[in-house]
Amino acid sequence: xxxHNLEDMGCGTSSVTKDKKSEKALKAALVIQNWYRGYSARLxxxxxxxxxxxxxxxxxxxxxxxxxxxxxxxxxxxxxxxQEKEPGLVTRLFGxxxxxxxxxxxxxxxxxxxSYCGPRLQFPLTFTDIDLLIEAFKQQQIxxxxxVLEVLxxxxxxxxxxxxxxxxxxxxxxxxxxxGDLHGKLDDLFLIFYKNGLPSATNPYVFNGDFVDRGKNxxxxxxxxxxxxxxYPNDLHLNRGNHEDFMMNMRYGFTKEIxxxxxxxxxxxxxxxxxxxxxxxxxxxxxNEVLVIHGGISESTDLTLLHRIERNxxxxxxxxxxxxxxxxxxxxxxxxxxxxxxxxxxxxxxSEQLTKQEWEQIIDILWxxxxxxxxxYPNTNRGGGCYFGPDITSKILNKxxxxxxxxxxxxKPEGYEICHDGKVITVFSASNYYEExxxxxxxxxxSSGMTPRFFQYQITKATCFxxxxxxxxxxxxxxxxMLKERMISRKTDLxxxxxxxxxxxxxxxxxxxxxxxxxxxxxxxxPWRSLSSHLVTTDKDGNIDYMSGFQDVHIQKPVKExxxxxxxxxxxxxxxxxxxxxIIDSDHSGLISMEEFRSMWKLFKSHYSVHIDDSQxxxxxxxxxxxxxxxxxxxxxxKAFYVVHKFDKLNKSDSKLE
Length: 658
Prior knowledge:
Largest sheet: 6 strands, mixed
Radius of gyration: 29 Å
Structural class: alpha/beta
Distance between the termini: 59 Å
CATH class of the domain at 112-463: Alpha Beta
Low-confidence stretches: 3-7, 95-99, 325-350, 649-658
Shape: globular
Helix content: 40-55%
CATH architecture of the domain at 112-463: 4-Layer Sandwich
Mean pLDDT: 81
Number of helices: 25
Strand content: 5-15%
């Protein structure tokens, strides 16, 4: 064999070896790729489960919030009886609180000291003030109460001239940007303005409600939006959301933020803000074809009626109209204040309320959610508004010659979602809404005749650079923690339900029995079977030790002798009780009298059918009054009712990579 043949043979062998190596490498790459896809899919599934938990608990809380309206209705319906027994309490709940004071009554005694180094606004405002405010807030400066009140008074004056629905037009050269919920997340607003430009006559915006609550910078967002609105009233449109509501703010944080940042003038700010909310338009119509509202529609949505409603009569979702006879309606309390059916704490006539039909129309557009199922049915998750199907969307849009509905109100993993054959778009602009890494934010740009364009983003903190599995573990851990807190607040009811199923008194239930009991008691429609490994221990036969769900958490008890049912009840209803307390505590001192506290509890207990002996609560109240001055610091008291996690199971075994 000559040298050429040898070389030919060598080359052939080398080629075959290379082919085999390439084939192995390709197979290995495919195995790794398939493994990674499966791994990523499992992480995404866990993330979806966590988001489902967050959303279910959020909606359950909102449902509890709306149920408070029944309590206030109960107060008004039983006004005569309650007034006889507890005159002081009723006066505090429904007495005159807000009067129509002018600007000088609020601003006359407020000085801006020379030492104040925050932004100083010049009225009438210009685009320079928008820049000034944004730069100050980036430096975490606080706008002085004097300027906050000036902005609120000026905003109210301009809003009073606006219709219920603002109309605006676009062109191919003038797009409009629609932003969804911001919920006090200032960094998201900064990022939107950085990417999309500041509002101006050539860069119009619609902010579709829920500017406040939950996040820590609701005041800053409100001031930027209101100042921008005052500079560009025809090009920046502000729709009311379900959180532009003074009662919602008491539960979800904005009231607390204001009183913390403005200790001296917080009460004045809250009073004027309550008025401003009522004058916010309820929707925007773009090019006579796109309806932008915060929540959604129902089969009975009547845009003609909604255009005519006196929207400023809608004080709060928690103050529904109550049918009353004329004599009852005009009955006066000792202060000469009319007890109006909507619970508005102002002097005036019974006509100051909306009709039931008008009130329901506004509730529907602020609270409703789209679903794939046809028809219109009660929104059982939130407790207010409705679920509306694609047929309802088509019916309402066709009736009013509209092409599309843009709404917000729901957190979406990608920041937006399209449904109902492209006729409904949800946009949500608060990224990391539930937990860092939980969701992206988005905004929409659209103009006449053009397809809407979506822009997504996510505020990135240092922790966002962690590997995906670590971020998912953190989100999942937080979600499970919230579930455990929900379970501990219903511990007595859960144990009773478990024991009804456990006929053999073995302390164990099948997976199906446990899941049925938990869903029945908590009222959360969740994949309990999948979640069980995070919440309880299971034996080798697949049976669940149902008491294990309470082993690593408990409610901190301020008084050991008080029965656990009372502790759980106070924890479960702590937000509702705090809202009622805050209304009674009209001067926001954080204190109410022992008698008011007892009266509040008795009324609450009566309406919510809580079966707890009054002596138990009296004992708790006595022990709460540590300095025996006859007053109770309820805010401090509630801090004693928090859930203690002895250890976090997710940090041990459940967070292992799957």
